Amino acid sequence: MTTRTQTPGSKRKPYVREMPASWWQRSLFYRFYMLREGTSVPAVWFSILLLAGIFALRNGPESWSGFVHFLQNPVVMLINLIALLAALLHTKTWFELAPKASIVIVKGKKMGPEPVITGFWCVTAVVTLVILAIALFL
């Protein structure tokens, strides 16, 4: 709660609009906004997990084996699935935002967002498949 202080030289109290903690629950737009911002928590989890994997790999076969065993825990698998879904949601909203950041004009007409969004998803799919192929076959 904010305190109300008087302005120097004035006896009036400044107007402070009250903002309840549940302000974001009133609108579907703001609820989705909070959900999207909340995707940062699983991203932090994945970043820490990735760093732990790098250190485990650096520390030798026993450490790596322990890390893989940790990843096979059902709770960790569930958290990783949630992190994947959060990353996909974040990616979807980011791809939908990208065409709004710049106006592309083709033959004198403004291009719609669909080709840009589709292109981003195609690039994502190709890069994912290439990384998967490298991981599985090398």
TrEMBL record:
<keyword id="KW-0560">Oxidoreductase</keyword>
<protein>
    <recommendedName>
        <fullName>Fumarate reductase subunit C</fullName>
    </recommendedName>
</protein>
<feature type="transmembrane region" description="Helical">
    <location>
        <begin position="77"/>
        <end position="95"/>
    </location>
</feature>
<comment type="subunit">
    <text>Part of an enzyme complex containing four subunits: a flavoprotein (FrdA), an iron-sulfur protein (FrdB), and two hydrophobic anchor proteins (FrdC and FrdD).</text>
</comment>
<comment type="similarity">
    <text>Belongs to the FrdC family.</text>
</comment>
<dbReference type="InterPro" id="IPR034804">
    <property type="entry name" value="SQR/QFR_C/D"/>
</dbReference>
<keyword id="KW-0812">Transmembrane</keyword>
<feature type="transmembrane region" description="Helical">
    <location>
        <begin position="39"/>
        <end position="57"/>
    </location>
</feature>
<dbReference type="InterPro" id="IPR003510">
    <property type="entry name" value="Fumarate_red_C"/>
</dbReference>
<comment type="function">
    <text>Two distinct, membrane-bound, FAD-containing enzymes are responsible for the catalysis of fumarate and succinate interconversion; fumarate reductase is used in anaerobic growth, and succinate dehydrogenase is used in aerobic growth. Anchors the catalytic components of the fumarate reductase complex to the cell inner membrane, binds quinones.</text>
</comment>
<dbReference type="GO" id="GO:0016491">
    <property type="term" value="F:oxidoreductase activity"/>
</dbReference>
<keyword id="KW-1003">Cell membrane</keyword>
<keyword id="KW-0472">Membrane</keyword>
<keyword id="KW-1133">Transmembrane helix</keyword>
<feature type="transmembrane region" description="Helical">
    <location>
        <begin position="116"/>
        <end position="137"/>
    </location>
</feature>
<dbReference type="Pfam" id="PF02300">
    <property type="entry name" value="Fumarate_red_C"/>
</dbReference>
